[in-house]
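G.,

No rush on this.
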Amino acid sequence: MKSKIGEGMLVFCIVVFIHFPTIVYGTQTQEVKTEGMISFTGTYEPIGAPEPKPPVHVVKPPSDGSSSLEKTFPQTNMITNTWWKSIGLSLLIIVVCWWGKALKNIYELKESRNEI
């Protein structure tokens, strides 16, 4: 009985952690002095004119058609579609239930053979 409760709690925890991910957004910025190296994303606005000067007309590199909007990397604060996660989780639950019933039937068959 305890193993069934433990298995049920394990499945419940997996479902909760996979199906309901925590989405966090940072809004506060703060200056921190450190001796290490920090990388950042954003726009850099230099003080003064750059040396050497950049070209006046920026030419876009030619596209060979291999890149498209569907093949982009995930961006910061990007919200993904949860339908695929829900379908996958449902399929996983169905397979685990089916596998558990198959193991139970095999166990009962072995028990009935041992009783004879």
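When you get to it, here's the other one too:
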Amino acid sequence: MYLLGHQLYQNTHPLATTANSLGEWNHFMRCGYATCLFPLCLLATGLASGCQTAQLRQGSINQAASYGDLQEQQVLDNLAKFAYDINSFPSFAYSAQGTNQVQDTLSIMSTSSWQRIAGGVYGWMSSTAVPSAARQGTQSWILQPLNDPRKLDLMRCAYQQVVRANLAACGSPIAGTPATCGGGNCPDCSKRLNSFYTGKADTPPPLPGDPKDAGRVTNLCLGNNPAWFASGCKKDLPKACRCLKYGHYCGVYVWVLPGGEDELAKLTLAILDYAVNAPADASKPASKQVAYFVDATGKQTTQANAVGVVSGTVPANKPSISILKADLPKTIKILEDKLAATTSAHAEYMKGKNPEAFAADPTAKRLKADIETYTQDIKTLKLHGVGLEELPDQPAPYRPSIDETSGPNLLQIQSRLQSTQPVPTVFPTP
């Protein structure tokens, strides 16, 4: 239609030029062709945005569901490793961060054709618009490998316990070896697991169902149904099972038998517990924070007269002043030295003098008052020391290995060394 109209225009206006044709073409593009493309672009953009949101939401759900599969698969592969050799070394990685991205790209390529109608006159022949769209989805997990030897040997004990129970149920000869695993008593798995759950090597966690049981998954929950998985070669894998959970290592395959999902879940929870949680600290009773102002001798005083502060943690059932007990011998020694020096100075000052005549002498009165003060303070501190109990020694705090924080390991080691400072002296030198 436009071409026909253009030709009629050229016939009735012989002086029309190419510029006129171009001007009409621009007018058509602004009012016709471009107007048709604008709603199309809006429609495509709106549809793409809605689809992108839906796919992003579904992708996030699928990625979150895959995290549990990732943990179970690591456990199954480790289980196959210990079925291959019960003295193997486990591996594990966990993630605290993941990404899910959806990127849409929409473009339209336009091509126009022109045809020469007469000398110096050109007309629009045709135009084509080729839209194209693309969508790219990206999902990733950032994994943190576990390098803490104390946690890895807990995992090793758990895998050995499960595999040993399974082999015993199957009548394997290895079932008669010592329960402390193939390496003898090092590590002692019973003590290591007890320490993790209760904080005491000789105190096991309560049995499931015990009134003292906290209800968490412990090593005592593992192996109750020992024959929950089978092992063999790849050809032994069941062929008719849907969604078969299996792991493999060095040609050895293990797979979960029907009804064994509960044992797999408990083992996975136990491994995650070792990976992300610190051991229990049974020697950490209820406590309170206390602080005392002390003078130069280490004796309790007011804030106005203090030269330092002694602060720390005291068990809730102990007197707060117990925090000063460790420093009492030093304080008493300082006061005794001062008492001896003051007594000697007083005797030297009064040598050859009549005590009655010098009773009102300021120097003699001051020295005598200091002697009485030191004597009374020493007596009071000794009485305090008799009534105070020794505070229990606090165990060294659990320090996770350097792999539990992000960053290059050498930088973490350097930071840890720089942060270790000597303990300052509580009392200044008198």
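The chain has three domains: 2-72+81-137, 149-276, 287-419. Confidence is low (pLDDT under 50) at residues 1-22, 27-35, 174-183, 401-430.

Enjoy the weekend,
O.
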